[in-house]
TrEMBL record:
Gene3D superfamilies assigned to the protein according to its UniProt record, in alphabetical order: Tetracycline Repressor, domain 2
UniProt-listed InterPro entries: Homeodomain-like_sf, HTH_TetR, Tet_transcr_reg_TetR-rel_C_sf, TetR_C
Annotated keywords: DNA-binding, Transcription, Transcription regulation
One Pfam family recorded for the sequence: TetR_N
Stretches assigned to the HTH tetR-type domain: 6-66
Superkingdom of this protein's organism: Bacteria
Name by which UniProt lists this protein: TetR/AcrR family transcriptional regulator
PANTHER family associated with the record: HTH-TYPE TRANSCRIPTIONAL REPRESSOR NEMR, TRANSCRIPTIONAL REGULATORY PROTEIN
UniProt source species: Enterovibrio norvegicus
Amino acid sequence: MNTDTHPTRQHILDVGYQLIVEKGFTSVGLSQLLAHASVPKGSFYHYFKSKEQFGEALINEYFANYRQRLDALFSDPSLSGYEKLMQYWRKWIEVNDGTCSNQRCLVVKLSGEVSDLSEAMRLSLLDGANHIIALIAQCIKEGTEDGSIQVKDSHAAANQLYYLWIGASLMSKLSQNTDGMSQALLSTEQLLKGNTAF
């Protein structure tokens, strides 16, 4: 994760992220987080008013880092819009297959868990996801301009693809394999090449 101007705050976020992607938000108690981070309770409350506020900060930081990685990929001038997007989805499979455990999708992990527990965290997740969809839509638009992508509505296609991949990732957690995401990759290829209504 990013280096914060407050090293202790950043350390708590980094340790908390690893615990939460492994165990879930509600399963990680404050005492467990503090023990793993080796910081006193006072340090936690100096930076976060509550566990919920910590969760918001964690989500916001996750998406800030996610957007940086996506910006770096999508700004590569050597790739077409289609190539950028296909590289992104292939990376998604790697990440959710556990080969990039430090980048696991927090949206997949937390959406169902916290949406009914914390309105603030739900809104942070939704806002972050909407920003990612907007970046995907922009890349699709660039792909239609360079001729590598054949869709009529870039935003509708971006929504459909993101929903498809979130769903495939959830199913892959249930089935404990990447078959669903491999099928999503084929569906993505078809959509971007114009073999759908978009």
